[in-house]
Design a protein that fits this description.
3 strands; mainly alpha; single chain; about 10% strand; Rossmann fold; about 160 residues; three-stranded parallel sheet
């Protein structure tokens, strides 16, 4: 956790939300530099959550910029994700949702690769009629949509 708050307050908040590493008493203009250092020297993927004008450079430097919806317009413009509510747990929910989405994308790519690796040569050799090939391709697209729609069932708490 990177914050301009004093160390005592920062440690209390970090403990409450399950964060182990705290960097406190950081001036707004220093936040982007700290993030850059974490990225380059420690080879870390860095997410930054911010709500003010002073957070915009750090949101831009971070790999994932997350702006609080009630924050300044420039923070919302700079962030890649905008949280609608002021609930810090929405950050964890967004991470879980993005991981589940990437799993679905990988699943869909895998099955499309398998399906097309077998189906295209068969169709190209003329072993099936063009109408059947068109129907099979449409069913392939429907299976991708159906698999993706399962994300709606995901319970993120």
């Amino acid at each position: 956790m990177l914050t301009g708050d004093n160390e005592k307050t920062a440690n209390a908040v970090a403990k409450k939300v399950g964060i182990n590493r705290v960097i406190a008493n950081v001036l707004p203009q220093e936040k982007a530099a700290v993030i850059k250092e974490l990225q380059s020297k420690e080879n870390k993927v860095v997410a930054m959550v911010g709500d003010g004008i002073n957070d915009a450079p750090a949101l831009a430097q971070a790999d994932i910029g997350i702006a609080i919806g009630s924050g300044s317009d420039i923070a919302k413009e700079t962030g890649g994700i905008i949280l609608i509510k002021d609930d810090i747990m929405d950050v964890a929910r967004a991470i879980k949702l993005s991981r589940a989405t990437m799993r679905k994308i990988r699943q869909n790519l895998f099955w499309a690769l398998i399906y097309n690796s077998g189906g295209i040569p068969i169709a190209a050799l003329g072993l099936i009629s063009p109408i059947f090939a068109a129907v099979a391709m449409a069913l392939s697209s429907i299976s991708v949509i159906a698999n993706s729609s399962l994300l709606k069932r995901l319970k993120i708490s």
